[in-house]
């Protein structure tokens, strides 16, 4: 059976029923609603009258209700009384006092903040001053310690200087003793060597004949040695060389102390040492070593040799005054200066003056080699030309007298 079959009949019954009031539905009757509305209306009107009697502050100023309430309860508008005026004045003064109190409170707050800030700054200043004092005290201690160290170093330095001076004096004394012993040994060696050379020369002269010609075994060179300690042998040696090559012999004086001789290295006799040097030694090194020997000892040794022809003379210049010794222009100037005093147009009367002038030129060239400073080619050329001029006759004679 369909349960919904009777629904149309039930719907018809509901449509034919009478409506139910709203108040009945919510559980209130119409009489109760009337009493409720009357009560709250009475309360509202009473409150309005009461508030209007106290000034009507709840109603708008220009509204009709407010005007009615004021006129109805107070009657006509009356001027404010003394109490109201005084109350208003007191309220204004109270307002001003409150504003002044607020301003004073703000000023006090600002002053308090400034005081706190000043106190903080003072505390920081005190702390900074204390820190600064501590740092200054530490710096003072460090300076004192550094000063003490400097004084100690100065004392040690002074003592070291004194010790060094003592060592220098002792070294000089030791060197002087060594030099004396070495000079004695060198003098003995030199005398032995001179005696050997003299014996060899006598044998050569006997073999060559009465004219004293130079043997070919020495390649046309005669090695002679002159010393201030034994200057008496120089004239005899000069006569030997002049007799052998009176017309073409070229005599040179220089500080060269090593010469090859039949392919053998002669013993070292100029420096205060037993060391032997190689045959090919530059003129500059040789001259400086000879100069050092001259400064250390009282004797001056000069090696003198004779060049019999122009080829050997040019070879001598190339070897000892070549590009390693002096510039090419200086070498040409030296050759020209030597030619000016040796040729037929030389301004010297005797062969002795000519030889002395040539000695002076070569000594000037050697002094250039010994010079520690650089010298230009023009300056060297001027010096060589000045040496080769006729005005050098007198200096050459003085050089001979001084020798």
Short key terms for the protein model shown above:
403 residues; mainly alpha; 3-stranded antiparallel sheet; 3 strands; rod-shaped; coiled coil
- How many beta-strand segments? 3
Q: What's the tally of helices?
A: 12
Specify the helix fraction band: 55-70%
In round numbers, the mean pLDDT is 60
Distance between the termini: 175 Å
3D shape = rod-shaped
Keywords: Coiled coil, Membrane, Transmembrane, Transmembrane helix
What's the gist of this structure?
The protein has 403 residues and is mainly α. The chain has helices spanning 7-16, 22-26, 30-53, 64-74, 82-208, 234-244, 283-296, 310-320, 328-342, 351-370, 377-387, 393-402, and strands at 224-227, 250-254, 301-307. It has a domain at 187-402.
Characterization of this structure:
- With 403 residues, this protein is mainly alpha-helical.
- It has a domain at 187-402.
- The protein is 67% helix and 4% strand.
- It contains 12 helices and 3 strands.
- The chain has helices spanning 7-16, 22-26, 30-53, 64-74, 82-208, 234-244, 283-296, 310-320, 328-342, 351-370, 377-387, 393-402; strands spanning 224-227, 250-254, 301-307.
- The chain has a 3-stranded antiparallel beta sheet with strand order 1-3-2, sandwiched between helices.
- The longest helix is centred in the middle third of the chain and has 127 residues, at 82-208.
- The protein is rod-shaped, with a radius of gyration of 69 Å.
């Amino acid at each position: 059976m369909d349960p919904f079959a009777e629904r149309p009949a039930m719907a018809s019954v509901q449509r034919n029923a009478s409506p139910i009031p709203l108040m009945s539905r919510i559980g209130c009757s119409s009489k109760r609603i009337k009493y409720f509305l009357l009560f709250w209306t009475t309360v509202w009107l009473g409150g309005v009258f009461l508030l209007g009697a106290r000034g009507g502050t709840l109603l708008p100023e220009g509204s009709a209700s407010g005007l009615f309430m004021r006129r109805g309860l107070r009657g006509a508008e009356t001027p404010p009384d003394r109490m109201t005026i005084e109350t208003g004045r007191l309220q204004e003064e109270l307002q001003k006092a409150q504003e002044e109190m607020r301003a004073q409170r703000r000023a006090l707050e600002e002053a308090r903040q400034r005081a706190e800030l000043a106190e903080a700054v003072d505390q920081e200043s005190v702390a900074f001053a204390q820190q600064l004092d501590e740092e200054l005290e530490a710096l003072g201690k460090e300076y004192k310690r550094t000063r003490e160290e400097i004084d100690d170093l100065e004392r040690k330095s002074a003592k070291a200087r004194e010790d060094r001076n003592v060592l220098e004096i002792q070294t000089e004394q030791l060197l002087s003793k060594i030099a004396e012993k070495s000079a004695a040994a060198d003098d003995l060696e030199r005398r032995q060597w001179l005696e050997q050379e003299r014996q060899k020369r006598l044998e050569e002269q006997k073999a060559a004949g009465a004219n004293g010609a130079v043997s070919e075994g020495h390649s046309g060179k005669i090695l002679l040695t002159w010393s201030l300690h034994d200057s008496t042998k120089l004239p005899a040696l000069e006569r030997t060389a002049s007799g052998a090559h009176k017309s073409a012999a070229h005599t040179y004086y220089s500080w060269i102390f090593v010469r090859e001789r039949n392919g053998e290295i002669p013993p070292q006799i100029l420096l205060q040492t037993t060391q032997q040097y190689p045959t090919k030694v530059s003129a500059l090194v040789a001259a400086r070593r000879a100069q050092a020997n001259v400064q250390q000892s009282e004797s001056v040794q000069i090696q003198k040799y004779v060049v019999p022809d122009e080829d050997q003379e040019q070879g001598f210049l190339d070897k000892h005054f070549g590009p390693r010794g002096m510039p090419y222009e200086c070498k040409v100037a030296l050759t020209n200066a030597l030619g000016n005093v040796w040729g037929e147009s030389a301004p010297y009367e005797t062969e002795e003056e000519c030889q002395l002038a040539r000695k002076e030129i070569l000594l000037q060239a050697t002094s250039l080699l010994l010079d520690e400073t650089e010298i230009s080619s023009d300056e060297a050329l001027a010096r060589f030309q000045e040496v080769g001029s006729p005005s050098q006759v007198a200096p050459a004679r003085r050089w001979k007298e001084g020798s």
